[in-house]
Amino acid sequence: MKAWFFGIAFALVFLAGNAFAATGSISVSLNSLNTIAVGESATVTATVTASGDSASNAQVTISLPSGLTTSDSTTQSIGTINNGASSTKSWSVFGNSEGTYTITVTASATSVTSQTANATLVVSNSALIQATTVTAPASSLAAGGTTSFAVQYSNNGGAGATVSYALSKGSGLTLSSGSLTDSFDLNAGGSTTRNWTFSMAGNGDQTITLATTATSNAVPAISYTIIGPTTGSNPGTNPATTTTTPATTTGTPSTTPATTSETPSSETQKPESKTEIIMPKTEASMKGLIPTAVQQALESAGITDVSASEIIILSQSLPVTRSLEVKKITDTNTGNVSYSSTISVSVKNSGNAAALNVRVVEEIPKTIASNASEIKSLLAFTVLKADPVLQFSVSRINAGESATVEYTVQKQLDLNAVSGMTPSMVVARTLEETPAQPATGATTGKEKGTLPKAPPVFPIEIVYAAIAVIIIIGAYLYFKKR
To answer: What is the mean pLDDT of residues 415-433?
Structure first.
């Protein structure tokens, strides 16, 4: 009988011990990957989440098939992940040959079962034709004035393609040099530039549109509008003022003939304008940089206290989008037209903690602004280089929230010019590990209207153990009485 009793007691204690054993687990997921060309890179990001208990000594290891390589460490340490929390690690993966590849990432931690996740990456060897403005035409021209327009065609893919273009122009523009249509072959990695020169022979606004087709991919059209002279105006005269000379009268003539200047009254010169949004706020594409290019861009911007790998990781937690809005401003008195283009850079904190001391660095090509003095913004910014390279600072971006910086140039831009910019670089030296602080004025603690704290819930392991102890004591007393 005693043997039977101790057998039951041992089994109950064993079950209770298992109840106290670690019940935590981890899971891992990978981001979806877009198709890349041979020689390009894709960023693979693994997100590891702990459930049921914290996970210690967590790490992730990437496994790449032949044809893909990475310069990052294949195994990256995470450390401890608290229960319910997540952590991310990233690799820049290069496609060295054409094919469809499966990338595997394994996540492991102490006393938990390892987990794996797969992602598919397609590396294409087809051509990828892009058209980029090298020289934008003048925003306005007087009668007889000339301007140049230049576009570079580049093939960033792994195969050759045939490129054809057709350039259309307003009837008031005369083509002085260049061809309105052309077709040519462009080998992989090759580039060529096409140039045109125009002269203003008419009145009013004149539009130039370059439509391009390629045998490999769609190429966005490039369009510019040039403000021409108003109808009836002549070069060298100002239609706003008229000078007349009265007839000579008898008497002593003056040394200088008298003249009368007729100037319109202040009422007719009251400045009035009409603003039209000719391009609503439209998102422009931003292609990711490979680590070497990131490092070069950082050094060019004068930032040496952060590594390229940090930027790669931050780009996942703080994704950036860039958009463009163009306005046409018409002076209703004079008919003069000007343009204003506003570039918006939005940074979203998609992580679980607040980002502090966020710096947004914009490297602006000379096709947009030749000097930092041409750029206006309602936000204060630092000129890292007058070339120009600008830095905007945001003190804090809470988890799940976004911050936007905007700057304006007084000219007409198109999406091609903005899409061709170096991707915005975001540097955040501190990422909080604690939940974001409430905004100013938010209620905290036990204030009126807040819900009381929920009563503590005992873990199921403790309940199991208590039941086991009660059964053992009951069995012991029962057999002792017998």
So the answer is: 71
- What is the C-alpha separation between 330 and 99, in angstroms, rounded? 54
Is it true that domain 126-231 has CATH number 3.30.1330.30?
Answer: no
What percent of the chain has a predicted confidence (pLDDT) above 90?
Answer: 30
**Beta partners for 105?**
62, 117
> Which residues are paired to 121 by β-bridges?
101
Cα 187 from chain centroid?
Answer: 30
Thinking of the domain 23-124, which architecture would CATH place it in? Sandwich (2.60)
How far, CA to CA in Å, does 177 sit from each of 149, 182, 199, 438? 10, 13, 10, 62
pTM (two decimals): 0.38
The sheet carrying 68-70 orders its strands as 25-30, 41-51, 86-95, 68-70
32: how many CB neighbours lie within 10 A of its CB? Answer: 7
**What are the extents of the domains in the chain?**
23-124, 126-231, 271-435
> Residue 350: what are its φ and ψ, rounded to 5°?
-95, 5
Q: Give the tens place of pLDDT for each residue, 405-418.
A: 999 999 988 888 88
Write the single-letter amino acid at 421. M
Strands 86-95, 41-51: pairing is: antiparallel
Comparison of pLDDT for 468 and 163, the residue scoring more: 163
Nearest CA-CA partner of 205 in 177, 233, 187, 226: 226
Q: What is the DSSP string of 298-319?
A: HHHTT--SS-HHHHHHHHHHS-
Is CATH 2.40.30.20 what the domain over 271-435 is classified as, yes or no?
A: no
User: Binning pLDDT at 50, 70 and 90, where does residue 311 land?
Assistant: low
Please determine, for residue 259, whether its predicted confidence score (pLDDT) is greater than 50: no
Amino acid at the residue 411? K
Collapsed DSSP state (helix, strand, coil) of residue 195: strand
CA distance 361 to 387: 13
Q: CB-side exposure of 474: number of CA atoms within 13 Å?
A: 8
Within 8 A by CB and 6+ apart from 456, the residues are none
The H or E element that residue 229 is part of is: none
Count Cβ atoms below 10 Å from residue 116 Cβ, excluding itself. Answer: 13
Which tokens belong to 199?
């002269």
| Residue 470 CB coordination number (10 Å) | 11
Kindly give the residue spans of alpha helices, DSSP state H, lying in 204-331: 291-300, 308-317
| HSE toward the beta carbon, residue 464, CA cutoff 13 A | 14
126-231 has the same fold as 23-124:
yes
Alpha-carbon gap, residue 229 to 242, rounded angstroms: 18
Residue 320: partners with Cβ closer than 8 Å, 6 or more residues away: 286, 345, 346, 347, 348, 360, 423, 424, 426
> Which residues contact residue 435 at a Cβ distance below 8 angstroms, ignoring those fewer than 6 apart?
353, 399
282 against 447, higher pLDDT: 282
Q: Do 104 and 62 contact (CB within 8 A), yes or no?
A: yes
